């Protein structure tokens, strides 16, 4: 089975390798083929991305449409409202977002920069909340979107306080250079994470996208493991990460206390 083709830089997830051997597995593979930039896909594109035979994909799409998980349009297939509704019911993310909301709003009012809340998922981070700044750069992120952990502020904050073995998994998955400033040497990344543990603050300066910088802090559980991270993102040439570090750390600490 081929991997899903995602065109957006903020969603690096691929369809899991290996032929799915159940109806649910095939249905999930079809849904996972949609990337961040895909408003809709044709049946031919879905079968190309997933390797699922066209007759099987056609039958599964029909069943998913009956449940409003996908919708048929005049030109293709798009994700349905029922899928959005189910995602909004996920208890962990909903509880985190509700707890974090006032802290993120305060952080936005104090800085007027783009604010992110992200959680770890394997070697990547998933954005669960975003408040866009009108004065900042267009940040290639979205709620539900993914980015590699090693080159983002929230990702490095999560990695620095991750369970044992997470860094090794990230390195094994490959450190791909996204910009001239992306850290791709495992030893250099490990030293960066050690400094983040000392400071409680992670910074990113044009490592995930040219012209963008951010400062982030982890939200920790009772064992000191990062369950989420908060960041402030803006133009690299004017975002004063040193000045903003206390604000983002205060917000993360506030969310940490509320979750315990």
Automatic annotation (TrEMBL):
Residues 21-88 form the HTH iclR-type domain. It comes from the Bacteria. Coiled coil: none annotated. Keywords: DNA-binding. Residues 82-260 form the IclR-ED domain. Pfam families: HTH_IclR, IclR_C. This is IclR family transcriptional regulator.
């Amino acid at each position: 089975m081929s991997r899903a083709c995602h065109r957006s830089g903020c969603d690096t997830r691929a369809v899991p390798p290996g032929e799915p051997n159940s109806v649910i597995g095939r249905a999930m593979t079809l849904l996972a083929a949609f990337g961040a930039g895909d408003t809709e896909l044709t049946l031919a594109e879905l079968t190309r991305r997933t390797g699922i035979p066209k007759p099987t994909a056609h039958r599964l799409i029909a069943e998913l449409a009956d449940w409003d998980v996908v919708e048929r349009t005049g030109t293709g297939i798009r994700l349905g409202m029922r899928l959005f509704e189910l995602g909004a019911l996920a208890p962990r993310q909903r509880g985190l977002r509700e707890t974090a909301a006032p802290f993120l709003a305060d952080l936005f009012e104090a800085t007027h920069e783009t604010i992110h809340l992200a959680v770890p998922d394997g070697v990547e981070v998933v954005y669960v909340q975003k408040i866009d700044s009108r004065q900042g750069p267009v940040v290639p992120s979205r709620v539900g979107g993914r980015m590699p952990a090693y080159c983002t502020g929230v990702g490095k904050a999560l990695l620095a306080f991750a369970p044992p073995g997470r860094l090794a998994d990230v390195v094994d998955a490959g450190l791909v250079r996204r910009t001239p400033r992306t850290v791709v040497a495992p030893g250099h990344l490990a030293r960066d994470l050690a400094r983040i543990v000392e400071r409680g603050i992670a910074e990113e300066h044009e490592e995930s996208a040219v012209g963008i910088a951010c400062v982030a802090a982890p939200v920790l559980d009772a064992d000191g493991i990062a369950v989420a991270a908060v960041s402030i993102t803006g133009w690299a040439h004017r975002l004063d990460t040193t000045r903003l570090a206390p604000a983002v750390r205060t917000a993360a600490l506030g969310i940490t206390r509320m979750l315990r």
